[in-house]
Amino acid sequence: MRVLLLFIDGFGLGSNNPEINPIVRFGLPTFNQLFGQPMTYDIGSILTPERCIIPIDATLGVPGLPQSATGQAAILTGLNTAKIMGSHMQAFPGPQLANIITETNIMKKLTAIGLPATSANMYTPNYFELVAKRKRRHSAITLAALSTGLPLRSLPEMEINEAVYQDITNATLPDFGIGHLPVLSPRQAACNLVNISRKYSFSIFEYFQTDRAGHKQDWQHAENILGILDEFIDTVYKQLPADTLMIITSDHGNFEDMGVKTHTLNKVPLIALGYQAQKTVGAITDLTGIVPALVAVLGKDDLCD
Questions:
Q1: Residues whose CB is less than 8 angstroms from the CB of residue 188 and which lie 6 or more positions away in sequence, other chains included
Q2: pLDDT tens digit sequence for 204-263
Q3: Among 94, 48, 18, 20, residue whose Cα is nearest residue 264
Q4: Are the C-beta atoms of 121 and 166 separated by less than 8 Å?
Q5: Which ranges constitute the DSSP H helices of the chain?
Q6: pTM above 0.90, yes or no
């Protein structure tokens, strides 16, 4: 068995109001077809053997709006990191939370038992230089990827379709001085991601344009990225190998309510598609349930060929 986790930042289940919810206004046809209704908080849980959606809690019993650092840490570690830290923590992990992520994340756990894990994201060649200059900070997912001891993917991998850039299509790469890579269709990027996932027990891809659009209340960007995401997810699902489970989830709400610039208290979707979907995720109720469920099923596997 293999797991491919698509992490979509700031993607909650909001109201059925197109005046504030771009997911309702512009649509996500792939999810509408899979589950028979729009992605709102009215959807409830839909559980079938190979196709599931469960609204899960991102607040974790801690007052205040859920935030990225502790939300992503909870997804990656299975720990209630907001409660451990005493509050929801924004953006990038500080030293204490970073240490928790580095030592207890799912990628490190799987690597320790001989099951290969990877981040499919591409990082710019000067990423570590920018980190050293404090112009960039490691996200929770980057910390988890680094904990495996494997190098992050960069230009050499992108040039042979062995990495996927955070915007999916490469359209924003020229903004960072990288102009020689072609702009990809979401379909081609999805095929690249699936091919990467075939080589690992666990693969993760981090997408955060949703959170950016939500904070900026940028409707034009929201429409564009929903079109990209829909084609991307549809292709990944249709190309998914028979032995692979695709998980889609988020750390908190935001994008689903353009009426505010902040995060929301809305539940986030936990979507499972493919191999042993219901068996794996059927009992999960919040962000902390994802890692135990995945480790339970992957820990039974032999080494991948």
A1: none
A2: 999 999 999 999 999 999 999 999 999 999 999 999 999 999 999 999 999 999 999 999
A3: 20
A4: yes
A5: 22-26, 29-35, 68-77, 81-85, 95-104, 106-112, 127-132, 140-146, 155-158, 186-197, 209-216, 219-239, 277-281, 290-298
A6: yes
pLDDT tier at 302 (50, 70, 90 boundaries)? Answer: very low
What is the tens place of the pLDDT at every residue in 16-43? 999 999 999 999 999 999 999 999 999 9
Rounded CA separation 24/247 (Å): 22
Chain centroid to CA 16: 23
Structure token pair of residue 56: 């899960």
What would the two tokens of residue 162 be? 């062995």
Spatial distance between the Cα atoms of 117 and 191, rounded to a whole number of angstroms: 18
Give residue-wise pLDDT tens across range 96-141: 999 999 999 999 999 999 999 999 999 999 999 999 998 899 999 9
Q: Are strands 46-48 and 51-56 parallel, antiparallel or unpaired?
A: antiparallel
* Residue-range domains of the chain with CATH: 2-298 (3.40.720.10)
The per-residue pLDDT for range 143-176, each reduced to its tens digit, is 999 999 999 999 999 999 999 999 999 999 999 8
Helix axes 68-77, 95-104, angle to 10 degrees: 20
Measured CA to CA in angstroms, residue 136 lies from 126, 128, 130 at distances of: 10, 8, 5
What CA–CA distances, in Å, run from 301 to 115, 208, 267, 305?
A: 8, 31, 31, 11
Distance, CA of 283 to CA of 171 (rounded, Å) = 39
Report whether 115 contacts 201 (CB < 8 A). Answer: yes
